[in-house]
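Dear colleagues,

As part of the handover before I leave the project, I'm documenting each prediction I ran so the next person doesn't have to rerun anything. This entry is a single chain, and its sequence is reproduced below.
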Amino acid sequence: MTPGRADQPTVVLVGAHGYGRGHLDRLARLHAAGRLRLVGVADPQPLDAAQRALCGAAVHHRDAAALIATVAPDLVVIATPVHTHVDLALLALRAGAHVLLEKPPAPTLDGFAQLLAAQRDTGRVCQVGFQAFGSAAFGELARQIRAGVLGQVRHIGVTGLWWRADDYWSRSAWAGRRWLHGRPVNDGALTNPFAHGVALALRLDGSGGDQPIGEVELDTYRTRAVEAHDTASARVRTALGTPVTMAVTLCAEQPVEPVIEVFGSAGTAVLHYTEDRLCTPAGENTYPRTELLENLLDHLADPGVPLLVPLAHTLGFTQVAEAVHRGPAPVPVAQESLADLPALTRRAAATGRLYRELGVGWARAEPFRWTPPPHPPTR
C-alpha cells in the first residue's frame, strides 16, 4: 500500500481492547476528520460490533507483524500488555513506521535501550503515551517553577490513593506480575497506575527526561496474592538534585485523585494531574489538554512542532521502573493491617520519608537502594 500523504498518514492500531479501545475511538474520530487514514487494526481477539463500526474499511488481523507487512503504515499505535511493548515497537520501527507507544515504554532499561537504538537506526519518531504531559496544567506549573514563583524547590511529593479490587489483578495473565513466561512484566502501582505521577514529578523542576536520575530508595508491599506491589514508597533525586518522594497505594478504600505537591521556599503548589487542575499561592485553575496522538500528527506534518513525550525523555521514569524490577519481591501485608493508610501516604509524600521510616508495624521492608548507570545500557 502506498504510504499516506504527510497531512494524512496511514495508521495501524495494535490492541483494540482495554485501553486500546480509547485509541480506536480517537483514531476513528481523526479518520473522519481527514487527519489520518486508519488502515488496519491488529488484535488476537475478535472485534465486537461497535469496534467493527469504528474500524470502517480498515483491515482487522489477528497478527500485528502480518498486518504491518501487508499495509506498510506510516504510523503504528501500540496499546498492548507491557511485556509486549518492546518487541512490537521494534517491529514497527524496523518496518519504517513512526510509533505511539503506550506507557510504560519498556519494563526494563535493557528494553528501553533497544528501543532507543532502533529509533536512532531507523530515523523514526516514537512518542510515549504519558498523556499527563499533554496537560497545560503541567506546563504552567513547570513555567512557574522556572520563573521562581515558588522560590527554591525543596521537595516534590507524589501521593496516590486509589482502590483496585481483586478483579483488577485477575483481568489478564500479565496483571500483577513481575515476570511472565520468563519475560519481565514489572507491573505494579509505581510502574503502571501511578506511572504518570512518577514521570511528571521527575521533570517538574526542569530536569531533562533524558538525563539520569540519582539514587533510588524503595520499599514495596502487597495485600493481594500477586507478585507485584500494590503499595509502595520511593525516594529519588532528579537530574538536578531535587528530592522526590512517591507514596502510592491501590488499597485506599476511599480513593481520591492523585496529586503532586511542589514545596518551595516561597510557597507550595499542588497539581491534580488527572484533572488538569493546578493550585498555587495565586489561586486555582483548570487547564486544557493536548492529545498525544494529535501532537504526534502535528510533529510529523511539521518537525518544528516538538513532541510532548519523546521516547528518550522517559529515561528517568524507566530508571525508577528498573529499580522496581531489580528490587526484592514486595512484602506481604494484610489489608486490615493498613490502618491510617491515607494519612500515612500523605505524610510520606509531604515529609520525604518512606513508609518503613514512619514507625508503622506493617512497613517492614528491608532498605533497597539502587543507583542508575550514567546512561542506559547499550547492546
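The first helix runs from residue 19 to 32. The chain has eleven helices and 18 strands.

All the best with the project,
I.
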